[in-house]
Design brief:
The protein is an alpha+beta fold and 279 residues long. The protein contains eleven helices and eight strands.
Protein backbone atom coordinates (compact mmCIF):
# COMPACT_ATOMS: atom_id res chain seq x y z
CA UNK A 1 0.00 0.00 0.00
CA UNK A 2 1.51 3.35 -1.03
CA UNK A 3 2.28 5.74 1.77
CA UNK A 4 0.66 9.15 1.63
CA UNK A 5 3.19 11.94 1.31
CA UNK A 6 3.33 14.04 4.52
CA UNK A 7 1.24 17.15 4.17
CA UNK A 8 -0.62 15.82 1.11
CA UNK A 9 -3.88 15.49 3.03
CA UNK A 10 -3.58 19.01 4.43
CA UNK A 11 -2.89 20.39 0.97
CA UNK A 12 -5.90 18.59 -0.45
CA UNK A 13 -8.13 19.87 2.37
CA UNK A 14 -6.95 23.45 1.85
CA UNK A 15 -7.62 23.16 -1.89
CA UNK A 16 -11.10 21.80 -1.19
CA UNK A 17 -11.80 24.57 1.32
CA UNK A 18 -10.71 27.15 -1.26
CA UNK A 19 -13.02 25.70 -3.92
CA UNK A 20 -15.91 25.52 -1.46
CA UNK A 21 -15.35 29.14 -0.42
CA UNK A 22 -15.38 30.23 -4.06
CA UNK A 23 -18.53 28.22 -4.75
CA UNK A 24 -20.27 29.86 -1.78
CA UNK A 25 -19.28 33.32 -3.03
CA UNK A 26 -20.70 32.49 -6.46
CA UNK A 27 -23.95 31.23 -4.94
CA UNK A 28 -24.34 34.30 -2.74
CA UNK A 29 -23.99 36.61 -5.72
CA UNK A 30 -26.31 34.60 -7.97
CA UNK A 31 -28.92 34.41 -5.20
CA UNK A 32 -29.21 38.22 -5.23
CA UNK A 33 -30.02 38.27 -8.97
CA UNK A 34 -33.39 36.51 -9.43
CA UNK A 35 -33.38 37.35 -13.16
CA UNK A 36 -29.90 35.97 -13.63
CA UNK A 37 -26.42 37.42 -14.07
CA UNK A 38 -23.78 37.12 -16.80
CA UNK A 39 -20.52 35.26 -16.30
CA UNK A 40 -18.19 38.27 -16.42
CA UNK A 41 -20.26 40.27 -13.93
CA UNK A 42 -20.65 37.24 -11.67
CA UNK A 43 -16.92 36.57 -11.63
CA UNK A 44 -16.20 40.23 -10.84
CA UNK A 45 -18.73 40.52 -8.02
CA UNK A 46 -17.84 37.16 -6.49
CA UNK A 47 -14.14 38.02 -6.84
CA UNK A 48 -13.48 34.64 -8.41
CA UNK A 49 -11.35 34.15 -11.58
CA UNK A 50 -13.56 33.87 -14.64
CA UNK A 51 -12.30 30.38 -15.54
CA UNK A 52 -12.91 29.13 -12.00
CA UNK A 53 -16.33 30.77 -11.97
CA UNK A 54 -17.27 28.99 -15.21
CA UNK A 55 -16.18 25.61 -13.76
CA UNK A 56 -18.20 26.23 -10.58
CA UNK A 57 -21.28 27.11 -12.64
CA UNK A 58 -20.83 23.97 -14.76
CA UNK A 59 -20.62 21.71 -11.69
CA UNK A 60 -23.60 23.37 -9.96
CA UNK A 61 -25.66 23.15 -13.15
CA UNK A 62 -24.93 19.43 -13.30
CA UNK A 63 -26.16 19.16 -9.69
CA UNK A 64 -29.34 21.07 -10.56
CA UNK A 65 -28.50 24.06 -8.36
CA UNK A 66 -27.92 26.65 -11.09
CA UNK A 67 -29.48 27.21 -14.51
CA UNK A 68 -28.03 29.23 -17.40
CA UNK A 69 -30.37 30.51 -20.09
CA UNK A 70 -29.00 29.56 -23.52
CA UNK A 71 -30.30 32.75 -25.14
CA UNK A 72 -29.36 35.39 -22.56
CA UNK A 73 -26.37 33.50 -21.11
CA UNK A 74 -27.49 34.64 -17.67
CA UNK A 75 -27.16 32.29 -14.71
CA UNK A 76 -29.74 32.06 -11.92
CA UNK A 77 -30.76 29.73 -9.12
CA UNK A 78 -32.79 26.82 -10.47
CA UNK A 79 -36.38 26.50 -9.29
CA UNK A 80 -35.69 23.15 -7.64
CA UNK A 81 -32.84 24.59 -5.56
CA UNK A 82 -34.54 27.76 -4.30
CA UNK A 83 -35.41 26.17 -0.96
CA UNK A 84 -31.79 25.06 -0.48
CA UNK A 85 -30.12 28.31 -1.49
CA UNK A 86 -32.72 30.28 0.43
CA UNK A 87 -30.70 29.42 3.52
CA UNK A 88 -28.10 31.91 2.33
CA UNK A 89 -30.69 34.65 2.75
CA UNK A 90 -31.72 33.84 6.31
CA UNK A 91 -30.57 36.19 9.05
CA UNK A 92 -27.69 33.86 9.96
CA UNK A 93 -26.72 33.45 6.33
CA UNK A 94 -26.77 37.20 5.78
CA UNK A 95 -24.62 37.94 8.80
CA UNK A 96 -22.04 35.41 7.63
CA UNK A 97 -22.12 36.96 4.16
CA UNK A 98 -21.66 40.47 5.58
CA UNK A 99 -18.72 39.25 7.64
CA UNK A 100 -17.21 37.86 4.44
CA UNK A 101 -17.72 41.23 2.74
CA UNK A 102 -15.98 42.96 5.65
CA UNK A 103 -13.10 40.47 5.52
CA UNK A 104 -12.66 41.11 1.79
CA UNK A 105 -12.81 44.87 2.40
CA UNK A 106 -10.14 44.59 5.11
CA UNK A 107 -7.94 42.61 2.76
CA UNK A 108 -8.37 45.16 -0.04
CA UNK A 109 -7.84 48.21 2.18
CA UNK A 110 -5.36 46.81 4.68
CA UNK A 111 -7.46 48.28 7.49
CA UNK A 112 -10.10 47.36 10.05
CA UNK A 113 -13.64 47.49 8.66
CA UNK A 114 -17.13 47.54 10.13
CA UNK A 115 -20.87 47.50 9.58
CA UNK A 116 -23.02 50.15 11.31
CA UNK A 117 -26.63 51.21 11.48
CA UNK A 118 -28.44 54.42 12.42
CA UNK A 119 -30.81 53.84 15.34
CA UNK A 120 -32.62 56.99 16.38
CA UNK A 121 -29.91 59.59 16.94
CA UNK A 122 -27.16 57.02 17.54
CA UNK A 123 -24.76 55.10 15.37
CA UNK A 124 -24.59 51.44 16.41
CA UNK A 125 -21.49 49.49 15.40
CA UNK A 126 -22.92 46.03 14.71
CA UNK A 127 -19.80 44.15 13.63
CA UNK A 128 -16.20 44.73 12.68
CA UNK A 129 -13.33 42.86 11.08
CA UNK A 130 -9.75 43.27 12.27
CA UNK A 131 -7.46 44.52 9.53
CA UNK A 132 -4.01 43.07 8.78
CA UNK A 133 -2.35 46.28 10.00
CA UNK A 134 -3.88 46.64 13.45
CA UNK A 135 -1.12 48.79 14.91
CA UNK A 136 -1.81 51.82 17.04
CA UNK A 137 -5.55 51.06 17.13
CA UNK A 138 -7.71 49.98 20.04
CA UNK A 139 -10.34 47.47 18.92
CA UNK A 140 -13.51 48.07 20.90
CA UNK A 141 -16.35 45.67 21.69
CA UNK A 142 -19.42 45.31 19.48
CA UNK A 143 -22.20 46.22 19.44
CA UNK A 144 -21.43 49.74 20.68
CA UNK A 145 -23.06 53.14 20.36
CA UNK A 146 -21.35 56.27 19.04
CA UNK A 147 -22.45 59.86 18.32
CA UNK A 148 -23.15 60.27 14.58
CA UNK A 149 -21.29 63.59 14.36
CA UNK A 150 -18.05 61.85 15.39
CA UNK A 151 -18.23 59.06 12.81
CA UNK A 152 -17.91 58.81 9.06
CA UNK A 153 -20.91 56.43 9.05
CA UNK A 154 -23.01 59.08 10.78
CA UNK A 155 -22.02 61.61 8.16
CA UNK A 156 -22.66 59.10 5.37
CA UNK A 157 -26.11 58.06 6.61
CA UNK A 158 -27.33 61.53 7.57
CA UNK A 159 -26.24 62.98 4.23
CA UNK A 160 -29.48 61.63 2.75
CA UNK A 161 -31.64 63.67 5.11
CA UNK A 162 -32.78 67.27 4.97
CA UNK A 163 -30.53 69.70 6.86
CA UNK A 164 -33.37 70.87 9.13
CA UNK A 165 -34.26 67.27 9.93
CA UNK A 166 -30.65 66.52 10.87
CA UNK A 167 -30.46 69.63 13.03
CA UNK A 168 -33.68 68.70 14.87
CA UNK A 169 -32.43 65.14 15.38
CA UNK A 170 -28.98 66.03 16.73
CA UNK A 171 -29.45 69.33 18.60
CA UNK A 172 -30.87 67.73 21.80
CA UNK A 173 -27.84 65.41 22.02
CA UNK A 174 -25.03 67.60 20.71
CA UNK A 175 -22.61 68.99 23.35
CA UNK A 176 -23.96 72.40 24.35
CA UNK A 177 -20.52 73.96 24.62
CA UNK A 178 -19.77 73.08 20.98
CA UNK A 179 -23.23 73.58 19.50
CA UNK A 180 -21.83 76.11 17.02
CA UNK A 181 -19.93 73.24 15.36
CA UNK A 182 -23.15 71.42 14.48
CA UNK A 183 -23.70 73.69 11.48
CA UNK A 184 -20.23 72.80 10.19
CA UNK A 185 -21.10 69.12 10.44
CA UNK A 186 -24.38 69.66 8.58
CA UNK A 187 -22.57 71.61 5.85
CA UNK A 188 -20.25 68.64 5.33
CA UNK A 189 -23.16 66.28 4.56
CA UNK A 190 -23.83 67.45 0.99
CA UNK A 191 -20.28 66.64 -0.27
CA UNK A 192 -20.56 63.22 1.39
CA UNK A 193 -23.74 62.47 -0.54
CA UNK A 194 -22.31 63.85 -3.79
CA UNK A 195 -19.15 61.72 -3.59
CA UNK A 196 -20.95 58.61 -2.36
CA UNK A 197 -18.72 58.27 0.71
CA UNK A 198 -17.84 60.25 3.83
CA UNK A 199 -14.43 60.86 5.34
CA UNK A 200 -13.70 61.92 8.91
CA UNK A 201 -10.31 62.75 10.37
CA UNK A 202 -9.41 62.87 14.06
CA UNK A 203 -12.98 63.27 15.35
CA UNK A 204 -13.78 60.20 17.44
CA UNK A 205 -10.11 59.77 18.37
CA UNK A 206 -7.37 62.30 17.68
CA UNK A 207 -5.14 59.88 15.77
CA UNK A 208 -7.89 57.92 13.99
CA UNK A 209 -9.56 58.41 10.63
CA UNK A 210 -12.29 56.57 8.75
CA UNK A 211 -14.11 56.37 5.44
CA UNK A 212 -17.71 55.13 5.08
CA UNK A 213 -20.26 54.43 2.36
CA UNK A 214 -24.03 53.97 2.81
CA UNK A 215 -25.86 50.74 2.07
CA UNK A 216 -28.68 51.99 -0.15
CA UNK A 217 -31.93 50.03 -0.28
CA UNK A 218 -34.66 51.70 -2.34
CA UNK A 219 -32.24 54.65 -2.59
CA UNK A 220 -32.34 55.23 1.17
CA UNK A 221 -29.65 54.23 3.68
CA UNK A 222 -30.00 52.67 7.09
CA UNK A 223 -26.69 50.84 7.23
CA UNK A 224 -23.15 51.78 6.27
CA UNK A 225 -19.77 50.10 5.85
CA UNK A 226 -16.59 51.76 7.07
CA UNK A 227 -12.83 51.50 6.83
CA UNK A 228 -10.92 52.75 9.86
CA UNK A 229 -7.30 53.21 10.84
CA UNK A 230 -4.68 55.64 12.10
CA UNK A 231 -4.33 59.06 10.49
CA UNK A 232 -0.87 58.26 9.15
CA UNK A 233 -2.36 55.48 6.99
CA UNK A 234 -5.76 56.93 6.12
CA UNK A 235 -4.87 60.28 4.58
CA UNK A 236 -6.42 62.88 2.26
CA UNK A 237 -4.34 61.33 -0.53
CA UNK A 238 -5.85 57.83 -0.29
CA UNK A 239 -9.30 58.71 1.07
CA UNK A 240 -10.89 58.62 -2.39
CA UNK A 241 -9.45 55.17 -3.16
CA UNK A 242 -10.69 53.82 0.16
CA UNK A 243 -14.03 55.49 -0.47
CA UNK A 244 -14.40 53.63 -3.76
CA UNK A 245 -13.62 50.33 -2.00
CA UNK A 246 -16.28 51.11 0.62
CA UNK A 247 -18.84 52.01 -2.07
CA UNK A 248 -18.28 48.70 -3.89
CA UNK A 249 -18.66 46.73 -0.64
CA UNK A 250 -21.77 48.70 0.32
CA UNK A 251 -23.34 48.01 -3.09
CA UNK A 252 -22.70 44.30 -2.63
CA UNK A 253 -24.27 44.43 0.84
CA UNK A 254 -27.29 46.32 -0.51
CA UNK A 255 -27.96 43.61 -3.12
CA UNK A 256 -27.69 40.96 -0.43
CA UNK A 257 -30.14 42.70 1.92
CA UNK A 258 -32.56 43.50 -0.90
CA UNK A 259 -32.64 39.85 -1.97
CA UNK A 260 -33.07 38.74 1.66
CA UNK A 261 -35.93 41.17 2.16
CA UNK A 262 -37.75 39.72 -0.84
CA UNK A 263 -37.03 36.14 0.24
CA UNK A 264 -38.18 36.72 3.83
CA UNK A 265 -41.06 39.04 2.98
CA UNK A 266 -39.94 41.52 5.66
CA UNK A 267 -39.34 45.26 5.38
CA UNK A 268 -35.96 45.00 7.10
CA UNK A 269 -34.27 41.57 7.36
CA UNK A 270 -31.80 43.02 9.88
CA UNK A 271 -34.25 44.87 12.12
CA UNK A 272 -33.34 46.14 15.58
CA UNK A 273 -35.46 43.43 17.21
CA UNK A 274 -33.77 40.68 15.21
CA UNK A 275 -30.35 41.99 16.20
CA UNK A 276 -31.27 42.17 19.87
CA UNK A 277 -30.67 45.92 20.07
CA UNK A 278 -34.18 47.03 20.92
CA UNK A 279 -34.83 48.76 24.18
Amino acid sequence: MAKQRPGAADGSEKKTDGLLNRAMKVLRVVSTYPDGIGLSELARLAEVPKASCFRIITVLEAEGVLFTDEDTKRTRISVGALSIVGGLLTRGGMLRAIRDILADLSEASGETTGFDMLQGSDIVVLMQNVGPSLIGQTLKQTPRVQPPWLTSTGKSLLSYRDADEVRALLTPHYPRENLHNLDLFIESLEPARTHGYAWLYGALERDAASVAAPVLIDEMPKYALWIGGPTYRITPENARHLGQLAIAAADKTARLLTAAREAQGTADPLSVDRLGLGG
